[in-house]
From TrEMBL:
Keywords, comma-separated and alphabetical: Cell membrane, Membrane, Transmembrane, Transmembrane helix
A UniProt-annotated Pfam family: RDD
Keyword presence, Cytoplasm: no
Subcellular localization: Cell membrane
Residues passing through the membrane, by range: 21-46, 58-80, 101-125
Membrane-topology annotation of the record: Multi-pass membrane protein
Protein name in the entry: RDD family protein
Location, primary (coarse class): membrane
Amino acid sequence: MTSSEPEVGRAAGIITRGSAAVIDLVVVLLIMGGLYGGLVLVRLVYSPTAFSLPSLNAVFSTVVTFAVAVVYLTGCWTVSGSTAGAVTMGLRVIGRRSPRVSLLVGVLRAICCVLFPIGLLWVVVDRRRRSLQDIVFRTRVIYSRAAR
């Protein structure tokens, strides 16, 4: 391992965590696209003669996107500690005394991450590379594997 490779177990920095967050955003948007496509197909199957594309409601779309993002993040963090973005970037979210976060911490952390994503920027200021969500919920985001 060279000095430029991250040390396994070391707290992740803003670039790696930000990149993982962007990947996760793309995953959530793909899920939303799949849900919309499924809705279109269901409408087509049930009324092919009177078919029209469903109109998008901003409030409904926002609520569904929020719910999908929270469920996605919570599920990933509580089951494996890693989202698709975290796996890609070699990261994992761990609890204070456990290699994974509890369901309650996962849900609350996900809600805060979705509602207040700017909290990630605290990683730049914090000496231990913690986001505001990490500080509040006593979690850490660490490198789970060395870079190749």
